[in-house]
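Folds abound. Consider this:
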Amino acid sequence: MPDLNGMMLFAAVVRAKGFSQAARETGMPKSTISRKVAQLEEQLGVRLLQRNTRSLSLTQVGALFFQHCISISDELEAAKATIENTHNDVSGSLRIAIPVSFSQELIAHLCSGFMRLYPNIELDVQFTDNDVSLVGEGYDIAIKYGPLQSSDLVARLLFERQSILVASPHYLTTHGTPATPQDLAQHSGILLGTSRSAPIWPLGKGQAKTMVNFKKKVRVNSAVMIKQLVLDDFGIAMLSGSVCKAELASGRLVPLLQEWPIEAFKVYGVYSSRRQLATSISAFLDFFHKRFTHQESLQSLMM
């Protein structure tokens, strides 16, 4: 039987996207974690991770094994929850609205883990970019990008992601590399957003923050499609660093105007203040907050 501690440390490395960060998060020496993972691979007779001096990636069997590690972790949490919540069972139905630009595969993994942990929950998940009415349309939770408008809704911050401007080397060779934010007005921009989104990017922070315009080439509500269009040399885009990590490392994409840092975008879980916070809503938001980065780590490390 595989060593349980080794499995949990392997999962910690995947979630942290590296041994150094896993060491910082667990408080264990990097050498100990590396040794435990190596022992686990030897015990299983397979390679779970491909390592070199610059990057770390999951093998195909490693990605499958990571899912089992997460399932075991969920089962352990479920066992703990069973004891702690004997008189407060999480059950009922949850109707959730999620932006189309979210990875549907990633959300599917999250929902699978949540339903394993809370088997008495019934989920109704709808991908939509409409400004849904929580009360009028019967939604319990809406996942929304910030900043949020003032309302009688309650918003809980779920996670933040740092964005960067990127372009392909061929596009920059053909059209030139912008040296200042104002130069972007002469470049084709690929906009992640809806039909209401304006072709404007906020660059810089605090008093140095400036709103810059660009020539809109394409507007789409899929980060995956945005990245592919940039790789196909159609223009410049603003993407989460985690979405294009591999392409930046390989040189297929180039970061731009890094001296003008972009404020991290925030994602919230929103629910109505007209009703008492249901245990099921609280449980889902807790799970989403905790697990989203774990599942995102798995996607970014997939070979």
Summary: The first helix runs from residue 4 to 16. The chain has a mean pLDDT of 82. The first strand starts at residue 49 and ends at 51.
